[in-house]
Design a protein that fits this description.
- The protein has about 300 residues and is of the alpha/beta class.
- The protein has one domain: P-loop containing nucleotide triphosphate hydrolases (Rossmann fold, 3-Layer(aba) Sandwich).
- It is built from 14 helices and ten strands.
- The strands form three sheets. It has a five-stranded parallel β-sheet with strand order 2-3-1-4-10, with helices on both faces. Strands 6-5-9 form a three-stranded antiparallel β-sheet.
- Helix 1 runs antiparallel to helix 7, helix 1 packs antiparallel against helix 8 and helix 5 crosses helix 6.
- It binds zinc ion.
- InterPro entries: Adenyl_kin_sub, Adenylat/UMP-CMP_kin, Adenylat_kinase_CS, P-loop_NTPase.
- Pfam families: ADK.
Length: about 300
C-alpha cells in the first residue's frame, strides 16, 4: 500500500511505478469475480411511473458482487446535501464493505489539530473545495489503515470530485460502478438549510419538510422532516457550512467541477443515474431495486 499511496500522490501526469493492474491486484487480492446479475437486469428502463433510472451509457453496466463485498469498488456521486452519506452508509452495512467518506476524513483531520487542520478550517469555512493533494493524502492514509485491518472493497463518498481525482483513482483501482444520486436544486437547498446536529450525541436530523407539487409531467417530490427525539430537541446546532451562501457556493462549485466527473464515468460505461423520488422510505427500496440488491435485503430480513 505504500506503493499505491505513492502512486496516488504522484497523480496521473507522472509515470507510474507499477502498472495499474498490479496496483488493482494489490488492492483486491484473493478475489475471484462472480457475475451474479446479467447486465440487462441491472438497469431497468423504468422502475415505475414516478421514478425512472436513466441510462444513456454506451456500454451496459455489469454489477459484480463478491460474497462479503470484496469485489465492491463503488463510488457515490451527487450534489452536496443529496444524501450520499446516508445511502452509502446503508449500502455498506448491507453488503459488508467500509463506507469511506472524504468529508469525514476532512472533519476528523480538522478535529485532530494536526498539521493540516488550520489550513483545512480556512478552506472549509469559505465553502471552497479542499485540494486534490490534501484529499488524496487523507484517502491514501485511510485505505492503508483499512487494508492493514483486513478490509476489502469500499464505497467511496465525496471522492472523486474532479476529473483529475477521477484519473488518479482510475489509474490505481478498478472502479466497478458509480452511482449518481440526483435531486432537484430547490429540494437540495431546502434540505441543506434544514440540517441539524445534536451537540450532545452527534445525531443528524432535518427540520425541513419538502413538498414540491408535480407539474407538466414532472413528478412531485415529498421528503418528510427527520425530527429529533425529545432528548435532542433542545441541543440542536447547525453546521457552520450549512448557511445559504455557503450551500449555494458548494452547488456552484459542484456544477463546475463535478459534472465533468459524471461525463468521465459515463464515457466508461460505469455511471448509473438515479433520480431520488423522495426521502429514504421512498428512495431506499428503489435504489436496491436499481442495484439488483432487493433480494439481498429480503434474504437478510428473512434470516433475522
Ligand atoms: Zn442527541
Amino acid at each position: 500500500m505504500v506503493v499505491m499511496s505513492r502512486l496516488l500522490r504522484a497523480g496521473p501526469s507522472t509515470s507510474p511505478l507499477i502498472s495499474p493492474r498490479i496496483a488493482c491486484r494489490l488492492f483486491s487480492s484473493f478475489t475471484s469475480e462472480i457475475t451474479i446479475h446479467s447486465p440487462t437486469s441491472l438497469i431497468p428502463n423504468s422502475i415505475n411511473n414516478n421514478n425512472s433510472i436513466n441510462s444513456s451509457n454506451a456500454k451496459p453496466l455489469i454489477l459484480r458482487i463478491e460474497p462479503h463485498g470484496r469485489n465492491v469498488h463503488w463510488v457515490f456521486l451527487g450534489c452536496p446535501g443529496v444524501g450520499k452519506g446516508t445511502y452509502a452508509s446503508r449500502l455498506s452495512k448491507l453488503i459488508g464493505v467500509p463506507h469511506i467518506a472524504t468529508g469525514d476524513l476532512v472533519r476528523e483531520e480538522l478535529a485532530s489539530s494536526g498539521p493540516l487542520s488550520s489550513k483545512l478550517a480556512e478552506i472549509v469555512n469559505q465553502g471552497k473545495l479542499v485540494s486534490d493533494e490534501i484529499i488524496v493524502d487523507l484517502l491514501s492514509r485511510r485505505l492503508e489503515t483499512g487494508e492493514a485491518k483486513g478490509e476489502a472493497g469500499f464505497i467511496l463518498d465525496g471522492f472523486p470530485r474532479t476529473v483529475r481525482q477521477a484519473e488518479i483513482l482510475e489509474g490505481v483501482i478498478d472502479i466497478d460502478l458509480v452511482i449518481n444520486l440526483k435531486l432537484r436544486e430547490e429540494a437540495l437547498l431546502a434540505k441543506c438549510l434544514g440540517r441539524r446536529i445534536c451537540s450532545e450525541c452527534g445525531g443528524n436530523y432535518n427540520v425541513a419538510c419538502i413538498d414540491i407539487k408535480g407539474d407538466d409531467g414532472s413528478p412531485g417530490l415529498y421528503m418528510a422532516p427527520l425530527l429529533p427525539p425529545p432528548g435532542c430537541a433542545s441541543k440542536l446546532i447547525t453546521r457552520s457550512d450549512d448557511r445559504e451562501e455557503v450551500v449555494k457556493e458548494r452547488l456552484r462549485i459542484y456544477n463546475e467541477m463535478t459534472r465533468p466527473v459524471e461525463e468521465f464515468y459515463q464515457k466508461r460505461g460505469k455511471l448509473l443515474q438515479f433520480d431520488l423520488p423522495g426521502g429514504i422510505p421512498e428512495s431506499w427500496p428503489k435504489l436496491l431495486q436499481a442495484l439488483n440488491l432487493d433480494d439481498q435485503e429480503d434474504g437478510q430480513s428473512a434470516a433475522a
